[in-house]
Design brief:
The protein is an alpha/beta fold. The protein has 14 helices and ten strands. The chain folds into two domains: about 10-140 and about 265-320, 3-Layer(aba) Sandwich (D-Maltodextrin-Binding Protein, domain 2); about 140-260 and about 325-350, D-Maltodextrin-Binding Protein, domain 2, CATH 3.40.190.
Length: about 350
C-alpha cells in the first residue's frame, strides 16, 4: 500500500479543507481536547502499512488522520509554519538536533511506552538526543545503488560508475539534498557532512556532471521507475531496492564502495501536540514486536526493534543485514549548522540548471 499521491486541482482543494480541519484541532481553544479520540500523524510516504493504522484504530477507538511528506526539509518547514495540529511525526536523527535547538519538541513520557524495552541499545542515546527525552527510534537504513542487470552492461561498484554515458537520462536519484550532495562529497574523498564551502562547490560541480544522466529526482517511490525499466539504475532507499527486486528479480542492490549515507528515523512529538497521550499510545503500539514485524514485512528497512527481528522470516531478516565493513565506511548525517544554507543553495542551482 502506498501513501504517495499525485494531486490534481480537486485533490488540492480537498487537502486545503483537510488542513483547515487539522488546524482546528490544534489546541483547546479551537476545540481540540487531550482526551479526544484523534491522532494526527505526519510521516514519510510509503513508511507505514495501512493495516497497522487500521489495527490501532480498531483496538483503541482513536481515529488516525495521516499526512505525508517526502523529505525532512518539507516536514520541518511545515511544522515551523505552526498551527498544524500534528501530534506525531518522524524525523531523521540530525533533524532532532535542529528541532530541539528551536524548542519544537515535547518531551516523551517513557512511562507510557513500556515497549521501548524492545529497542536495541545501539539505537538509543544518540548525540542528537543523549537521554532519549525527545525521540523514540522507528527505523534505520541507508541510501544504496540499485540497477537493472538486464539493461546495464557496465559493472557497477559505486557512485563513480553512474557517471558513465550508458546511464544518460537513465538514473533515478533521491530528492534529498543531504544524501545526494553527500554522495558527491564521498566520491571526492570528503566527509558527507562537510561544512567547507570549497569542498561543497566541488561537490556541486560533480553533481552537475552527473545531471545529464538523471531522469528523475524521487524520494517517494523511486522503485516504480526501476521496476518498469524506465531507468537503468538509481540511488535509492534500501527498502525501495529490496521491494523493486521482489517485483523484478533483475534489480540488484549494492553498497557503494565510496561509503553509504546512513540514517535513523525517530518518532517525535511536536510542541503543543493536542493529543500527546494518544501519540505515546501509538508509539507503544508500533513498538510491539508483532506490529513492528508487520511494518518490516511491507517496508523492509533496518529495524531497531530486536524482538521484532526475531519474528521475521530468515530471507527478510537476511536482506536487512549489512556487513560491518560497509557500515564502518558509511556516515550518518549530522547538523551542519549554517552550512545548511550552502547545501540548499547548491541543490537549488543544480536542480534548476
Amino acid at each position: 500500500m502506498s501513501f504517495s499521491r499525485k494531486f490534481g486541482i480537486g485533490a488540492i482543494v480537498l487537502l486545503f479543507l483537510v488542513s483547515i480541519v487539522l488546524t482546528a484541532c490544534g489546541g483547546d481553544e479551537a476545540g481540540g481536547k487531550s482526551d479526544e479520540k484523534v491522532l494526527n500523524v505526519f510521516n514519510w510516504s510509503e513508511y507505514l502499512p495501512e493495516s497497522v493504522i487500521e489495527q490501532f484504530e480498531e483496538e483503541t477507538g482513536i481515529k488516525v488522520n495521516y499526512d505525508t511528506y517526502s523529505s525532512n526539509e518539507e516536514m520541518l518547514a511545515k511544522l515551523q509554519a505552526g498551527n498544524t495540529g500534528y501530534d506525531i511525526t518522524v524525523a531523521s536523527t540530525y533533524f532532532i538536533e535542529i528541532m530541539r535547538k528551536q524548542e519544537m519538541l515535547e518531551k516523551v513520557n517513557k512511562d507510557n511506552i513500556p515497549n521501548l524495552k524492545n529497542i536495541g541499545e545501539s539505537f538509543l542515546g544518540t548525540d542528537a538526543d543523549p537521554d532519549d527525552e525527545y525521540s523514540i527510534p522507528y527505523m534505520w537504513g541507508k541510501a544504496v545503488i540499485a540497477y537493472n542487470e538486464d539493461l546495464v552492461t557496465k559493472e557497477v561498484k559505486g557512485y563513480e560508475d553512474l557517471f558513465d554515458p550508458e546511464f544518460k537520462n537513465n538514473l533515478v536519484v533521491l530528492d534529498d539534498v543531504r544524501v545526494i550532495i553527500g554522495n558527491m562529497l564521498a566520491i571526492l574523498g570528503y566527509s558527507q557532512n562537510s561544512t567547507s564551502e570549497k569542498e561543497l562547490e566541488e561537490a556541486k560541480e560533480k553533481l552537475l556532471e552527473l545531471k545529464p544522466n538523471i531522469k528523475a529526482f524521487d524520494s517517494d517511490s523511486p522503485k516504480t521507475l526501476l521496476v518498469s525499466g524506465e531507468v537503468k539504475a538509481g540511488i535509492v532507499w534500501d527498502a525501495e531496492a529490496i521491494l523493486a527486486a521482489r517485483e523484478n528479480p533483475a534489480i540488484k542492490m549494492i553498497f557503494p564502495e565510496e561509503g553509504m549515507n546512513l540514517w535513523q528515523d525517530n518518532f517525535v512529538i511536536p510542541k503543543g501536540a493536542p493529543h500527546k497521550e494518544n501519540a505515546e499510545k501509538f508509539i507503544d503500539f508500533i513498538l510491539r514486536p508483532e506490529i513492528s514485524k508487520e511494518i518490516s514485512m511491507e517496508y523492509p528497512y533496518g529495524n531497531p526493534n530486536v524482538e521484532a527481528l526475531k519474528l521475521l522470516p530468515d530471507d527478510v531478516r537476511e536482506s536487512l543485514e549489512v556487513p560491518e565493513e560497509e557500515l564502518l565506511k558509511g556516515e550518518y548525517n549530522i547538523d551542519v549548522g549554517e552550512a545548511t544554507q550552502i547545501y540548499d543553495r547548491i541543490w537549488s542551482e543544480v536542480k534548476n540548471n
